[in-house]
Amino acid sequence: MEVLAVSSEFFPLIKTGGLADVAGALPGALAEHGVRVTTLLPGYPAVLAKLDHTEPVHGIGDLFGGPATLVAGRAGHAKLLVIDAPHLYARPGNPYVGPDGRDWPDNPQRFAALARVGADLARGLLPAWRPQVVHGHDWQAGLLPAYLHFSGDAADAGTTRPPSVMTIHNLAFQGQCDAGLLAALGLPPEAYGIDGVEYYGSIGFLKAGIRLANHVTTVSPTYAREICTPEGGMGMDGLLRARGSAVSGILNGIDTHVWNPAKDETLAERYSHKTRDKRAANKQALCTRFGLDPARLLFGVVSRLTTQKGLDLLPTSLATIHDLGGATVILGAGHPALERAFQDAARPGEMGLFLGYDEQLAHLIYAGADALLIPSRFEPCGLTQLCAMRYGCLPVVTRVGGLADTVIDANEAALAAGAATGFQMAAADTPAFERTLGRVAEVWRDRAAWDRMQANAMKAEVGWERSAARYADLFRGLIA
Asked: What pLDDT score does 154 carry?
């Protein structure tokens, strides 16, 4: 079965967050179920520089302001198609924002181009290959179902329009632009309506995908329910409820080959759930780097520093962590006010801070910290808690979205049954957060209980096996 995936990120070529990890790992997992995925990506400099076995396969005339070439290539075992369009993508750094931190003003054209080429491929742009299903990821691919729906001859829709799946990775990022761009984006007047791309007087990329895709998935069952409510729907709950059974949640996984402490060459010492006593060498290395005492309970953070992630709770709670005999290591970047708050709160021997992102340091934090703090206000799925569990770092999470679906709370019953894998709190507020920190410290002092939880977490199913099977079933059901 041939599937075209359309994504703006793909690990290890280009990454700003979890979207890249999912887009990079899911094709390999689907291959085990007889699904062959080809992924379409924008031709950012970082992508073109890392692409192997490249071959131009199609020349595109004018693509929203300049010529483009469709290039086939590979990244490891992954099969890729890349849009080489320098006028749209030949920009260094972050794929969405310029050096001034603002969105590129032509982002509507840049990601409409991604969706448009995806639709053309779905219709048979390459004579020797046509996908049976197209799978768009997030708002950047949101116009894909619109281009399929509003162009071409309706009489041959059954043969030229393969079914589409739209995956919402985070409903907070919706992709909107001025309605005056409708014609410039190659969409006909009839596309601008409540059953098309119109969204509160603008063009809504993600709204179009949700309305027009054959099926909509999101990245955890709990988040699928949350986004259908006024509290969690970000203005789209009515539309999502109207789609009914065409909306479902399929839990994300992680690439367990990349995230494997037994084979991770970035670590000070490798280990498995059977040799987890060797984790101590990684905690020592992490503490040495940041001048911390490895005898203390060590909390880690690997995250965007935003209020969505609940990390505005942490600066004022660092004193509580210290009183509990703990220390903290923070890796992340985000809102300038939060970055400054952490810089102001830093105390030697109590907190290590790295503003930015460092993949190797992320691995070391998972391998060396005792617990990972994820007090999110909402969380579609989250991947950091899965990576942390794989490495024996117990996640401390809010009971929302995929965090609720993946972490078993260390309540009295779960501890007695030997089933707990982390700590859940009911709300992302300071009282709940600090009470949960106290629970973490209490269990950490019970070394036998903590050891059982580490073993549970490291043995938990965090890969793509079950979820890839659900995607394969979904794809086959759409073409049945």
From this structure: 43
Residue indicated by tokens 């004022």: 316
pLDDT beyond 90 at 93: no
439: which 2 tokens?
A: 């629970």
Model confidence at 158: pLDDT above 90: no
pLDDT (tens digit per residue) in 242-259: 999 999 999 999 999 999
Separation CA 268–CA 278 (nearest Å): 10
- Characterize the bridge pairing of strands 198-199 and 202-204: antiparallel
Q: Report in angstroms the alpha-carbon separations of 186 from 66, 122, 382, 419.
A: 14, 17, 35, 54
Distance between CA atoms of 433 and 359, rounded to whole angstroms? 27
Take residue 90 and report the two structure tokens written for it. 């030949």
Q: Are 462 and 256 within 8 A, CB to CB?
A: yes
Beta strands in 46-181 (DSSP E): 52-60, 68-75, 78-84, 133-137, 164-168, 176-178
**Residue 308 CB: number of other CB atoms within 10 A?**
17
> What whole-number distance in Å separates Cα of residue 372 and Cα of residue 406?
14
Q: Please tell me whether the peptide bond between 12 and the residue prior to it is cis, using omega within 30 degrees of 0.
A: yes
Structural domains in the chain plus CATH codes? 2-253+464-479 (3.40.50.2000), 273-459 (3.40.50.2000)
By C-alpha distance, which of 245, 207, 206 is closest to 224?
Answer: 245
Please tell me whether the overall predicted TM-score, pTM, comes out greater than 0.70 for this model. Answer: yes
What is the phi-psi region of residue 16: left when phi exceeds 0, alpha when psi lies from -120 to 50, beta otherwise?
alpha
Contact 451, 136 (CB under 8 A): no
Structural contact between residues 54 and 72, judged by C-beta atoms closer than 8 angstroms? yes
Q: Write down the pLDDT at residue 156.
A: 47
- Output the CA torsion 107→111→113→119 (10° steps): -160
Confidence of residue 142 (pLDDT cuts 50, 70, 90): very high
Contact criterion met (CB below 8 Å) for 131 and 2: yes
Q: Tell me: pLDDT of 157 over 50.
A: no
Q: What is the pLDDT of residues 117-131, one digit of tens each?
A: 999 999 999 999 999
The pair of structure tokens assigned to 52 is 């192997």
DSSP state of 104: P
Query: What tokens appear for 410 in the block?
Result: 């260390």
Residue 11, CB-side half-sphere exposure with 13 Å CA sphere: 18
